[in-house]
Amino acid sequence: MQQLVDEINERARAKFGTGRVADYIPALAEQNANKFGIAVCTNDGQVYAAGDARDAFSVQSIAKVFLLTLSLRVYQDTLWERVGLNPSGMPFNSLTQLEAERGKPRNPFINAGAIVVADRLVSAFATPSKHIRDVARRLSGNESILIDARVLESEWQHRSRNAAMAYLMKAFGNIDNDVDQVLHSYFSCCSLAMSCVDLAIALNYLAADGHAQAMGEQFIAADLARRINSIMFTCGMYDAAGDFAYRVGLPAKSGVGGGIIAIVPGKMTVCAWSPALDENGNSVAAQYALELLANEMGCEFGR
Amino acid sequence: MQQLVDEINERARAKFGTGRVADYIPALAEQNANKFGIAVCTNDGQVYAAGDARDAFSVQSIAKVFLLTLSLRVYQDTLWERVGLNPSGMPFNSLTQLEAERGKPRNPFINAGAIVVADRLVSAFATPSKHIRDVARRLSGNESILIDARVLESEWQHRSRNAAMAYLMKAFGNIDNDVDQVLHSYFSCCSLAMSCVDLAIALNYLAADGHAQAMGEQFIAADLARRINSIMFTCGMYDAAGDFAYRVGLPAKSGVGGGIIAIVPGKMTVCAWSPALDENGNSVAAQYALELLANEMGCEFGR
Amino acid sequence: MQQLVDEINERARAKFGTGRVADYIPALAEQNANKFGIAVCTNDGQVYAAGDARDAFSVQSIAKVFLLTLSLRVYQDTLWERVGLNPSGMPFNSLTQLEAERGKPRNPFINAGAIVVADRLVSAFATPSKHIRDVARRLSGNESILIDARVLESEWQHRSRNAAMAYLMKAFGNIDNDVDQVLHSYFSCCSLAMSCVDLAIALNYLAADGHAQAMGEQFIAADLARRINSIMFTCGMYDAAGDFAYRVGLPAKSGVGGGIIAIVPGKMTVCAWSPALDENGNSVAAQYALELLANEMGCEFGR
Amino acid sequence: MQQLVDEINERARAKFGTGRVADYIPALAEQNANKFGIAVCTNDGQVYAAGDARDAFSVQSIAKVFLLTLSLRVYQDTLWERVGLNPSGMPFNSLTQLEAERGKPRNPFINAGAIVVADRLVSAFATPSKHIRDVARRLSGNESILIDARVLESEWQHRSRNAAMAYLMKAFGNIDNDVDQVLHSYFSCCSLAMSCVDLAIALNYLAADGHAQAMGEQFIAADLARRINSIMFTCGMYDAAGDFAYRVGLPAKSGVGGGIIAIVPGKMTVCAWSPALDENGNSVAAQYALELLANEMGCEFGR
């Protein structure tokens, strides 16, 4: 396996020069495009890493997996009264569908859905941002994980579209708390700085029937882990969920920081990272790495 | 396994009385709602059946799996120049998205997508309807399979919405052949009358890496089978793909005739059938049966 | 007045070279772009003409005014059960709004609306195309007016988008007759070949409280004439109704043949024609001519 | 004329009991539904009033006419770089069209358009709310006109949907100033409390080629007045612009406070008011009053 990740590391770097670093906030635009890391965490606790796998990067939308998991732990299936679980078929930050469906977002992996989930956590926790950060630390076994204050500030300065979605949902009665407070929690979570190794360990509970290995305990129920995987499979890759399912065939979630986490249920998690994105907002080199790995291992979601 | 399908047969019949038989064409509206059948076909060739598993019913949208497979056999990945492979997020017969995306349907499992696929087959075969019927016979090992002429005539009489979609796509240059001819082929395929046993055997190639057991040959490449499964997982259950993925977690395709085919990759196919549908057009009892089976067997797409 | 139309004729020709001749059907694409005509018909029966004002051209969407008038004569306000009378805010041939509003077109001046109106005439008249042609002859006092068979054939060959709209409306129960027959009547009316002089005389009833001067009789009630003018003001210029209202401020209807008819209520009609169109499908030179005339005369809709 | 307005006052009151008082903000929901007033202001300075014509009510969207006029005075036609002037065909507070058209509202009489216009005034004036109030006072010759602080506070508390629109436009770069500040100015203007008499006098410049009679001066150019009338004709009555144009045929602007101002160019302004609204947000009794008056006087926009 170490040989495989080393080889993938080498081949994925050939993609440098393709795609563009996210520029929707200045703090992300400064990233070095020529970075690539990959980490595998097997269910029996082995970690294999290559390249820049220990560099912390902005998790961005990968945070939506944490938000969803933590919210499902509190609200179980009543969460689905606030957010759907079907693919949206629209860009991740669209207001059109949100208006047509009266403020109930299609799924928790589009921005509007994650904002609703964040609102649920604001209702449940006194300091939701700190709670999320602490859980990320415990799940990854890395106490030095931080919320990147510069990224957070940059998100806040450029909040207009997310604010538009939050206010629209509030107009429909689907946000209970103050919009500014909800956005702050949401942005805090997106601004977590974690490495490929951190994420592969932290999210291994999705491959391991809900058991979090760094915590040494059952984090969520087995069937809940399976269900989150299903949502990742259908909705995890922005508009390209179907393309990715067709080519790679694994549950995954990507972020505009360039990271992608993929789950091989029963076996392992894989996190790949490289900042340059394709037109769908998914990392070019990280996608390629996961495609290589899936083909090499013949690992199939469904086998 | 026979015990399990017998038990599911009994429990699923408790759902009689919930849902409504499809009424969009008269020929379907006459179906007896109080029918239920289930058939399992394992990759090693065992068939387990219960209830009305040998009654022929109208395959309707399950035909889209045949259409897609046959078209991919001819066109391979060039097919995707004509049709996408991402979830649509819109009703299966919507024209709005089709117009916005200039006549290229989102995926081959919405009506517009299947009509484009049918147009491809009209270009490739002299008698496409006969070709499809013959393949259905050979895949299921049942030479008596027929196209139901009454259903076909009824589809034709009520073709307005499908005709609207076909003409819109032709306006965008995405239909090459005469609209009437394409619709006729499409409706013929939807009007195939097959039983749960027929379908479970016929589509077992999707569970068996592309090997068709009744034909005794490799019908499509293994990776193509995996890819079709991915599309079924993300797009197979009309608007409820995400709900079904969350609850059942298997690649599946349903039809308004009341049938649903589900794939357990590497293991088996399951076909359940009962005519009464929920508001998404999916059979109430057949969905329930698949949920029971998935939970009992702990079979997970991804394990 | 003759001096004014001569001057406008001269100035409008300076616009030659701007815009593009309609190319959606081959028969129109062949038009000579460097044509311009203008005709004024006053309520007291004077006709002033300049340039190519006696060349027959394809009336195209100007026919929608005839269709609407003839249908209102038969059905009066019950017509509005089939078609709305509010601006659409969408392209004239959009299916999105038609689907959202369940097959009831926004107004009679978008294609879908005119097709519904044509369906009403097919229900009312044994030979609707002939009826429309005959009325056009009597209103203009020109017995030689013809339906251009080449244009009609070309419309038919390229009917896909209009057929899509007609089938969609039929799916919603808003078309009573056979789609092919309805489209044939609609295209026949659009294929009328008339000159600026013909149209200015024929539609003068809209300026003259419903009195048709060539027929010497009250063609429609005065309040109905006023109401058709209101619809022309709000919906007559495709997507540019507001722009045209802002700049010119007169009820008008344009066609992709390059003609525009404008009404100065209580005073006169003006028809200008030149084949090259702007991106909204309105003739560049004809719009300019009407703007010049409105400014020169200080004629205001509302004074 | 006094006799006519007295008669209309009597007949319009028969509509009491039809429609519902606006309830989107609590401060409006408390209005007494059984109020009706009408005032006519002729271009030669006569005022005819009946019923509750001197009761101040919340002008709400009628304020959009003031906002537009004041902004056109500053920016002239460059204003149209920020906002369109075509009918929207969508509900007045829709975000769907705003997103599709990248943050440029269709016209200045939908909420998004008026918010953009307010942003322009925030850029131009140190104290825009005070400026608007002072102009309303001078135009009506009534120095006691106030912004209703309770309505303003209520608008602010229920700003979510307007905030969503403003943030969406800011995301597209079409709002220059702080969203809270822009909304405050917009709501202030909507919260002006004026009577039928105040409004009929204040907006008479639109009937009088731009001459404001209470100020005794040319307020805007004659062609600008004509153009504002055209926008009112095509866009002034929310979704019912076409219906109103068909039935009444005058440029008008309504507000959810129950007021409607109508323009008879060259002659007079009419303001009617009654709080109960139809499903389009237009006052039932005020619309009826204007229809009676238009029919009685035979005044036609276009004559």
Automatic annotation (TrEMBL), chains A, B, C, D:
Gene Ontology annotations of biological process type: glutamate biosynthetic process; L-glutamine catabolic process
Which keywords fit this entry according to its UniProt record? Acetylation, Hydrolase
Q: Name one GO molecular function term.
A: glutaminase activity
Read off the Gene3D superfamilies from this record: DD-peptidase/beta-lactamase superfamily (3.40.710.10)
Which transformation does this protein catalyse, written as a reaction? L-glutamine + H2O = L-glutamate + NH4(+)
Q: Which domain of life is it from?
A: Bacteria
Amino acids binding substrate: 61, 111, 155, 162, 186, 238, 256
Q: Which EC class heads this enzyme's classification?
A: hydrolase
Query: What InterPro entries is this protein classified in?
Result: Beta-lactam/transpept-like, Glutaminase
EC number(s) recorded for this UniProt protein:
3.5.1.2
| NCBIfam families linked | Gln_ase (TIGR03814), PRK00971.1-1 (NF002132), PRK00971.1-2 (NF002133)
Its quaternary organisation is: Homotetramer.
Family classification: Belongs to the glutaminase family.
Q: What is this protein called?
A: Glutaminase
* Gene (name only): glsA
